[in-house]
Amino acid sequence: MALQVLYSFATQRFSRGALFNIVVGLFMAWFVAFGCLYPLHETMHFHGMAESILEGLPSGLAGAVGMVRSPSSSFAIWHIPTSILMPMYLLGPN
Questions:
Q1: Cα–Cα distance measured from residue 63 to residue 27, given in angstroms and rounded to the nearest whole number
Q2: Is 26 helix (H, G, I), strand (E, B) or coil?
Q3: Helix, strand or coil for residue 93?
Q4: Which residue, among 32, 9, 26, 10, has the nearest Cα to 81 in the 3D structure?
Q5: Positive/negative CA dihedral, 14, 86, 82, 39
């Protein structure tokens, strides 16, 4: 929601060309950051946090902790913002 408000504010302040360059620049920076951090992907996973959570929870919640431990959960941090921002960018200025 905050991103939509920020984007609507930006559409009022910047021309279409400038807004396009800003949004494309943000996407490029986001994926460059992912590309630079991907070699460290083993350290980005939440294995340690999952182990500490598992110690304090009942064994019936081990499946939920398994979702946190899954490598896809740490990669989702990178892909979810993209899936939120892309439709907003494509449909917003029209």
A1: 33
A2: helix
A3: coil
A4: 26
A5: negative
* Tens of pLDDT, residues 35-57: 887 777 777 667 777 778 778 88
Closest CA to 26 of 82, 90, 71, 83: 82
Q: Where are the domains of the chain?
A: 2-91
Number of neighbours of residue 65 by Cβ within 10 angstroms? 19
CB 11 within 8 A of CB 93: yes
Look-up of token digits 């200025």:
93
Q: Which residue's entry shows tokens 């609507």? A: 8
pTM: 0.53
Give the pLDDT band of residue 82 (cuts 50, 70, 90). low
Which has more confidence, 41 or 88?
41
Q: Are 92 and 11 in contact (CB under 8 A)?
A: yes
